[in-house]
Write a structure and sequence with these properties.
This is Glutamate 5-kinase. By secondary structure, the protein is of the alpha/beta class. Helices cover 40% and strands 19% of the residues. It has 2 domains: 4-267, Acetylglutamate kinase-like (Carbamate kinase), CATH 3.40.1160; 275-371, PUA domain (Archaeosine Trna-guanine Transglycosylase, Chain: A, domain 4, Roll), CATH 2.30.130. The protein has 14 helices and 13 strands. The strands form 2 sheets. Strands 3-4-2-1-5-7-8-6 form an 8-stranded mixed β-sheet, sandwiched between helices. The radius of gyration is 22 Å and the shape is elongated. The structure holds adenosine-5'-diphosphate and the ligand N[C@@H](CCC(=O)OP(=O)(O)O)C(=O)O. Residues 11-13, 49-53, 75, 133-134, 136, 142-143, 146, 148, 210-212 line the site of ligand VHF.
């Protein structure tokens, strides 16, 4: 049976001591938990924050820097130390590690993400643990918004992961920030992330050392779900914490449902591994339906078509000169031109096709840039 592929994201809040420095005891516990999961025949990719925490003291700061330049320099000092710490710990389990420093831009550039995919595939084939962090010298998003969360979602889509585990300092998502509101209630399971849940969750971080708070995890979870990857956000203790999470016994919130799984391969192929054969330009109503209401693209919303493509090929969906999504078409280019602007029942009467959707929701993924614009 194929090995299950799991992406584990560890936030700064789960790697730091009370002074904001790297906590080697915590790192050791995460390492043991990953080693235990690997021994159960899972493939694991680790996305780890912690470079700033590991580096600021040697850089000459008494406490974690607050300026962006200070954080960038601290990350430059600390990244090597962070990887060294992981490498030493994993070696005690006879496991080899590797380091990849990425930026979110990589995921908008086909050549770059194909290269990342090849590297990751080869590393996993050779049983090496990839350890990924954002390249803080060239990208500052993550130092300000907590984009290691988003990076973990994009990586999980790229590598066809079965599951994304986001480990943090709190045992899941609450309806309010439990650190400031004692009446907050925890969600144990969510089939999907509604607009209400996204809106009620704020960017408040629990510790002084994390960035982005629960909101950035939810935006990342939404992206992972849109790529067919189920998500766990929460915490855990001990060597068996990741195994327990995979056994449905984790201390946190599980997000997504099983149908997500069947869509995974198709969605991930559309997002990262397909060739684009053309584009469909849509009107405002269609763009809103796609972006905010989880709807399919219907002929009524199509304005124009570029390129020649057949049924089953993948196209860009464009609104106002920006690509909002990619999707696999149910009609060829000629028919879409013929039926553009028409109501679905008219299209159904006049075409041999049994489906009115030009692109069905299950065959559509939002663009990476759009993932950042959810509010
Ligand atoms: N609705 C909420 N549910 C759970 N946690 C929340 C919520 N709103 C804000 N938070 C805060 O988000 C924190 C986790 O985010 P963060 O500190 O950025 O972690 P990390 O460093 O692991 O990325 C929690 O400690 C919690 O205080
Ligand atoms: N790239 C930075 C991570 C910044 C950060 O705090 O991220 P996170 O705790 O995951 O929200 C580092 O390695 O320190």
């Amino acid at each position: 049976m194929a090995k299950k592929r799991i992406v584990v994201k560890i936030g700064s809040s789960s790697l730091t001591n009370k002074n904001g420095g790297l906590d080697l005891i915590k790192l050791k516990e995460h390492t043991a938990a990953i080693a235990a999961l690997k021994k159960q025949n899972y493939e694991v990719i680790l996305i780890s924050s912690g470079a700033v925490s590991a580096g600021f003291y040697d850089l000459g700061y008494p406490t974690r820097p607050v300026t962006i330049a200070g954080k960038q320099a601290a990350a430059a000092v600390g990244q090597g130390l962070l990887i060294q710490a992981y490498t030493d710990e994993f070696r005690t389990f006879n496991m080899v590690t590797s380091q990849l420093l990425l930026t979110k831009d990589v995921f908008s550039n086909e050549t770059q993400y194909s290269n990342v995919y090849s590297t990751l595939t080869e590393l996993l084939k050779r049983d090496v643990i990839p350890i990924i962090n954002e390249n803080d010298t060239v990208a500052i998003d993550e130092l300000t918004f907590g984009d290691n969360d988003m990076l973990s979602a994009l990586v999980s889509g790229l590598v066809h992961a079965d599951f994304l585990i986001m480990l943090t300092d709190i045992n899941g998502l609450y309806d309010k920030n439990p650190n400031t509101d004692p009446t907050a209630k925890k969600y144990d399971r969510l089939k999907s992330l509604s607009k209400e849940i996204l809106q009620q969750t704020k960017h408040e971080s629990g510790s002084k050392f994390g960035t982005g708070g629960m909101k950035s995890k939810l935006l990342a979870a939404k992206t992972a779900l849109s790529l067919g990857v189920k998500v766990f956000v929460g915490t855990g203790k001990g060597e068996d914490k990741l195994i327990r999470i995979m056994q449905d016994d984790g201390d946190g919130t599980y997000i997504g449902e099983d149908s997500t799984k069947s869509l995974r391969k198709q969605k991930q192929w559309i997002a990262f591994h397909s060739d684009i054969s053309g584009s469909i330009h849509v009107d405002k109503g269609a763009s809103e339906a796609i972006l905010y209401q989880g709807k399919s693209l219907l002929p009524a919303g199509v304005q124009s078509v570029e390129g020649t493509f057949s049924i089953g090929e993948v196209v860009d969906i464009v609104y106002n000169d920006s690509i909002i999504a990619k999707g696999q078409v149910n009609y060829d280019a000629e028919d879409i031109i013929k039926f553009k602007g028409e109501a679905s029942h008219i299209v159904m009467e006049q075409s041999a096709n049994e489906r009115p959707e030009v692109v069905h929701r299950d065959r559509l993924v939002l663009s990476i840039e759009e993932a950042y614009n959810y509010e």
